[in-house]
């Protein structure tokens, strides 16, 4: 009643040799290793080689791929464009930002979880920034970094440390009305204030011998008192009565 069953079996006219098997395994391991390196890579270096100045355009980065959230961003020397615009959704988290030329960074607000550094030139950082951990800002000797974006710490109490390393004796300009609540500490170099609320609402600590200049007339009273009373050894330019 029923005919013979038919089973289709894929066949190969040649049996793989051990050499072929080893080569195939090696190719798979090499591919897996490459994929892992891509996943583990967290540093993205700006080249400015794209058609726009936007962060989300992959051609603006050396890897040809736009950064991922949580990445370390490096704005390297001698790029095609030194104007760089964050067009990621507001609040996207990046771990750190390093600036190695005269850049102007602007665009949407970011969250920043690590360090901010300027190594050689005069740059403007015009990004509103929400801190997720204490911000370490290092401005190399002879360099100038102006932060004109507003700094906040969300619902936390997070501060800013300026120039903790001996090689970082440059100038940091704070020109926005900032609303972070933690301590601002200047260890080396110069901190310049262009706004009465630039130091947020927390305490201020200044290492004697460092320079704190161009005070805004409306600087919060408790910051004035802290500097004048606790840090009398500091070089304070523009301070009332000095």
SSE-based structural type: alpha/beta
Spatial ordering of strands, largest sheet: 1-2-5-8-11-14-16-18
What is the mean pLDDT? Answer: 80
Query: What order do the helices and strands follow?
Result: HEEEEEEEEEEEEEEEEEEEHE
Q: Gyration radius, to the nearest Å?
A: 26 Å
Largest sheet: 8 strands, parallel
Number of helices: 2
Proportion of helical residues: 10-25%
Q: Span between N and C termini?
A: 113 Å
Task: Give the domain tally.
Answer: 1
Inertia-based shape: globular
Which stretches are poorly predicted, pLDDT < 50 over at least 5 residues? 1-14, 31-40, 229-242
Q: What is the number of strand segments? A: 20
Proportion of residues in β-strands: 25-35%
Can you characterise this structure?
The structure is a single chain. The chain is α/β, with parallel strands linked by helices and 242 residues long. The chain has one domain (43-236). Helix content is 14%, strand content 29%. It is built from 2 helices and 20 strands. The protein has an 8-stranded parallel sheet. An 8-stranded parallel sheet has the order 3-6-9-12-15-17-19-20, with no helix packed on it. Strands 4-7-10-13 form a 4-stranded parallel sheet, with no helix packed on it. The longest helix has 23 residues, at 18-40. It is globular, with a radius of gyration of 26 Å. Residues 1-14, 31-40 and 229-242 have low confidence and may be disordered.
